[in-house]
Amino acid sequence: MDLPLIWAGLIAFAVLAYVVLDGFDLGVGILFAVEPQDEDRDVMVNSIAPVWDGNETWLVLGGGGLFAVFPLAYAVVMPALYPAIIGMLLALVFRGVAFEFRYRAETQGGRRLWDLSFLLGSTLAAFCQGLTLGGLLQGIRMEGRAYAGGWWDWLTGFTLLCGVAVVVGYALLGATWLVWRTEGRLQQRCRAYARWLGVATLALIGVVSLWTPYLHPRFAERWFSWPGLALTSPVPLLVLLLAWRGWRGLQRGEDLSPFLCALGWFVLCFAGLGISLFPLMVPPDLTIWQAAAPRESQLFLLVGAAVLVPAILAYTGYAYWVFRGKVRPGAGYH
Length: 334
Description:
two-stranded antiparallel ribbon
């Protein structure tokens, strides 16, 4: 068995699961910026309350897997992207505290303070995830087996663009999630948000996608020359197809299809990222096999993952099934 390749696939799956699941609940927090009514905010939070903490399990699995199975990649990525990663983690902690404390606030001012905290934590976490993605894509300078760059090498125009793109994309996921899970005036407003956010997300996907191949010659060769072109050419076509289907669903008053199309965009972007990077673990030179731990360690951990991953999938599916359906005012989780 090619254990490094298997583990790379497992970690990629964990990261994708985190993005598509935690992305929409971060997006709900970002949309607090445009929803001033307390009752509507309660409905928004109650729509994600049963599942938001379980969604973050995939982040722990992805980060823990990287540390255990690809220790060299972990040792290079962490010092290169410390500010963005630590900012993301602190924002997620702050957001989690605000999530619970907003229900315990005894004054209106206290409630508004925790709502603002929830908004800022959600937005900062999403922005830092985009910075981390951009910093990884643009490459990390190494000498031998160690990081050789500075504290601020990750901060460039490309990483800032990726940060904004992730915030807007997560807000789109949040809006379409609320279209699916709510009703009435809140749902109608979220349909309008989803239209504007969909246009903005599509534009940002286009700009980031056009910029990425020019970061490294390897990326350009993969996207614009044969046989890589056979893999890459369907991606933009599928993105446009989903854009048409999602817009049509919003116009026709459908509830679920806009959310599924928005998720499809993220899956396709993740596929494009994989096409660009494979077999690199850390651009521009560190491959999956070079970064891997000893085979014995990988095999030992794979036994645990074979039990843990199905259990997480089963729990996640069960939680979403139990708490399915529309969320209405006054019938919340808390």
